Amino acid sequence: MTEQVQAQNRASTVPGLGERAHRAATTVADPLRADSAIAQRFASDDERFESFGRAIDAIRREAEASVGDADLRHVKRLRRLSRGLEVTGRAAIHFSFEPLGFGAGVIALWLHKQLEATEIGHTALHGAYDKLPGVGRFHSKRFRWRTPIDEESWRYGHNVRHHGATNVAGHDADIHFGPVRLTHETPWRPAHRFQLLYALLMLFPNFGFVMNLHFTGLADVYEGNGRGGMDFLPDRSRKTIAEAHWKALRKYAPYYAYEYALWPALAGPFWWKVMLGNYLSEVLRDLYSAATIFCGHVGEEAASFPEGTKARKRGRWYAMQAAATYNFRVGRLRSVLCGGLDLQIEHHLFNRLPPHRLREIAPKVERACRDHGVPYRSESWGKTLLGALAHIQALSKPDGVSPGTAETAVTA
Question: Own/partner pairs for 51-56, CB < 8 Å, 24+ apart?
């Protein structure tokens, strides 16, 4: 099945997005193939990937050598800012009796939750500060995430499974979330017909809650992974299912009690106002986070790989990471609120670097990719998000081909 034929099978998309998705699909073949001008500079693809690996390793050595006490001071300053925003937001929600004060409180509380979820929490759980003296609570094994997501489950599902083999079926569990398939490697089911609607109305506004279901394995219990098995649970024994529920509840219970029981109770007869403000701040964080994360690996041009795909050498693995990934362009403030995930390519090549270090090395990474014919995609956030939604809608239709048969699903 050629790439062009597969593109025609995917062409039915949401209004205004179909042509973009179709054009993208018809221009992508082997995602690791360089154009002729670049290919001629190397004796073989193996030499090209070895050179690329050396270039990325050189950037890594320089960047890691620069990480030190200043990075730890930076995240501690962010934590102080985050706590200040929380106090300000909760006070404004609690004491305001007019829309402007209430709205300002919701925004401040959202900013607190956004910083905790991304620039602070996501970075710490990746182990960015683990080797620094005095790391304390910011060590990945001791960090307590201010989100409704279990830390232990997330570290395994995200750091090991997702980052270890991005968009590789059978290893990366993030190629689907419940009834939403994100690559052709997840077989189509009738439930997928409504996946764009589900993503916009259920998944995005409840992103933290759904992610905890996913990583703890509760989604395996109630949904399955669409490939005839489970993503995280080894079996369906009573003990295994009970452990999955415990992992999810040990985070859900205290988190939601804090948000929807403690603070509303302190407001007395105005409990409903505090509960509403807390809920709105949760939704804002979840919408912003989902819009950030879904832009990273979802789209017609993002490479996906069939089960069993493995990179033979490090340089090829680096290239696979870049080929499966998108960047998007935003200003510095929005990049901080994204936790640096607007630089998803750099994050996947150097997932233990703090976000502000990723921002420093991005021009070098882009140059290395361009010089070696490795995909480096960077569009506006809006264009990237529209492409991701177009892809989700395209995948709501039956493929007409078996997963893994497209030219983009190459073995490495």
Answer: 51/315, 51/372, 52/315, 52/318, 52/319, 52/368, 52/369, 52/372, 52/374, 53/313, 53/314, 53/315, 53/316, 53/318, 54/315, 55/368, 55/371, 55/372, 56/315, 56/318, 56/349, 56/365, 56/368
At residue 409, the pLDDT reads 39
Report whether 106 contacts 281 (CB < 8 A): yes
Residue type, 22: H
In whole angstroms, give the CA distance from residue 93 to residue 216: 32
294 alpha carbon, distance to own chain's centre: 6
Q: Which of 96, 148, 158 is nearest to 123 (CA)?
A: 158
How long is the chain?
Answer: 412
Distance set, CA 129 to CA 81, 115, 120, 350, 361 (Å): 19, 17, 11, 13, 18
Go through 182-205 and write b for each residue having 16 or more CB atoms within 10 A of its CB, e for each that does not. Answer: bbbbbbbeeebeebbebbeeebbe
The secondary structure of residue 35, as a DSSP letter, is P
Give the separation between CA 142 and CA 123, rounded to whole angstroms.
13
The whole-angstrom separation of Cα 163 and Cα 230 is 19
Distance CA 230, CA 226 (A): 8
pLDDT above 90 for 225: no
For residue 394, what pLDDT band results from cuts at 50, 70 and 90? very high
Q: Which of 152, 310, 307 lies closest to 229, judged by CA?
A: 307
Q: What is the DSSP annotation of 59-100?
A: HHHHHHHH-SHHHHHHHHHHHHHHHHHHHHHHHHHHH--SHH
Here the tokens at position 338 are 């994204």
What number of other Cβ atoms are within 10 A of residue 369's Cβ? 22
- Distance CA(192)–CA(206), nearest Å, equals 19
How far apart are the C-alpha atoms of 49 and 1, rounded to whole Å? 27
164-187 residue pLDDT tens:
999 999 999 999 998 899 999 999
**16 contacts: CB under 8 Å, gap ≥ 6:** none
**pLDDT, tens digit (0-9, with 9 covering 90-100), for 3-37:** 333 333 333 333 334 443 333 333 345 778 888 88
Q: Residue 133: pLDDT above 80? A: yes
Q: Which amino acid is at 201?
A: L
pTM above 0.85, yes or no: yes
